[in-house]
Amino acid sequence: MKKDNSDLSTSLEKLYSEQVEEGFISPTIVKQVRSLQVIPNTQNTHFFHLQFNPARAKRGIAEKQNPNPIHTIPYKDGVPCFLCQDNIQYQWPNEKWVSKNLNNRLFHFYPNPSPIFPHHFTVASHEHRGQSIDFSTNLHLLDILPNYWIIQNGEGAGATNPWHFHFQIFTTLKQLPLSVTPSLYSHSISLGDTTCILERLDLPLPVFKFQFKPSSPHKRYQGYSYIQEFLQSTLQHFYNIHPDNRINIITINRSLGTVDIYIALRNKGVRTDMYVSGQPGYAEIAGIVSTIRESDTKRWLQKGYGLYQQLLSDISIPESQYAPFEQSLLSLVE
Predict the structure, then answer these.
(1) Residue 286 has pLDDT above 70, yes or no
(2) From CA 108, how far away is CA 127, in angstroms rounded?
(3) How far apart are CA 323 and CA 334, in angstroms?
(4) Greater pLDDT, 6 or 254
(5) What is the DSSP secondary-structure string of 234-290?
(6) Which residues pair with 123 in a beta bridge?
(7) How far apart are CA 1 and CA 297, in angstroms?
(8) Residue 161, SS3?
(9) What does pTM read for this prediction?
(10) Which residue has the higher pLDDT, 152 or 97?
(11) What is the mean pLDDT of residues 224-243?
(12) C-alpha 54: how far from its chain's center?
């Protein structure tokens, strides 16, 4: 185990390189991540990435099962939780990690053995506790890792998302879809003393972008606090009424201290029937990347962006369910 007490970013970079050199992370996959297939629409105003990475499913399969696991995942037919440290040590004995306290809780930074982004880590709590949206820890990660995107999927909003509190972090490619996707509208809203720009991205999946540039660290935390308060009070209502509703949170630092928060509303359903014939099996991280099962993408490319739009439509919650959320946001417009 590696214990980090200084520069976390440097420790992660060193660890990742070591794990690639040792073969724990496939150099082939790392090369693929650096050159993901980009699929634009006909006007080149939208795009997404395509990746052939069949090893993505291995993390949650637990082919080598711990005979005495501390926790199991009920909805995975008793498979031990693949983010609990005892199971990781048993199933992946060559995996190393960096540990750090975040908001008085111990977290482990595990290199993802089948990454979909550069320097892709899973940041999992040491103790086994339920997955939940946690903006406070999210902000802490953003502060100490300004060059990373911070991802948190609500329970059920990932392909093999276990019931174990965690984030995903990665350094970005040159361009990622959400950062360049056009907006349907842009408004200024007030969150306490912080002014925020609200945008709805032009995608079949409802993705809302909050952008704010706090004038001080205090107001930065305050802005997060208001967003968290709003989400908890607004989305919890939808979750209670519609249990299939799920959420992806993506947080990034921009230049000059600007913070972007993307909130994607989606259904937990995954299009497993699209895991054939070169079609995307599911949308990773609110549609930034679609993963396929065929290494030959020619048939997929023939259908291109239209199929991707259909995929996002299929995992989206119905408009009748996200419309009240959108109306609540727009009621804050100055």
Answers:
(1) no
(2) 10
(3) 19
(4) 254
(5) HHHHHHHH-TTEEEEEEEEE-GGG-EEEEEEEEES---GGGSSTT---EEETTTTEE
(6) 109, 167
(7) 39
(8) coil
(9) 0.89
(10) 97
(11) 72
(12) 19
Q: What share of the chain is helix, strand, coil (3-state, %, to 5)?
A: 35, 25, 40
What are the tokens at 110?
Answer: 């595990």
Residue type, 29: I
Provide the pLDDT confidence category of residue 295 given band limits of 50, 70 and 90.
Answer: low
Cα–Cα distance for residue pair 122/111, rounded to 1 Å: 6
Element (DSSP H or E) covering residue 210? strand 207-212
| Contact criterion met (CB below 8 Å) for 59 and 160 | yes
Distance CA 29, CA 26 (A): 5
Q: What percentage of the chain carries pLDDT values higher than 70?
A: 82
Strand order across the 47-52 sheet? 37-40, 47-52, 289-292, 282-284
Sign of CA dihedral 232, 238, 242, 245: negative
Q: Which long-range contacts (CB under 8 A, 24 or more apart) does 202-205 make?
A: 202/46, 203/46, 203/287, 203/312, 204/309, 204/310, 204/312, 204/313, 204/316, 205/264, 205/265, 205/266, 205/283, 205/286, 205/287, 205/312, 205/313, 205/315, 205/316
At 184, the pLDDT band (50, 70, 90 cuts) reads very high
Instruction: Note the pLDDT of residue 111.
Output: 94
- 232 SS3 class: helix
Task: Tell me the per-residue pLDDT of 115-144, one tens digit each, with 9 for 90 and over.
Answer: 888 899 999 999 998 888 788 888 889 889
Q: Which residue has the higher pLDDT, 305 or 112?
A: 112
- Compute how many other C-beta atoms are within 10 angstroms of the C-beta atom of residue 65: 14
3-class secondary-structure state, position 50: strand
CA–CA separation, 316 vs 284, rounded Å?
13
Strand partners for 247? 265
Tokens of 138: 């999210």
Phi/psi region, residue 67 (left: phi>0; alpha: psi -120 to 50; beta: rest), is alpha
Residues in the chain: 334
**259 token code pair:** 């913070």
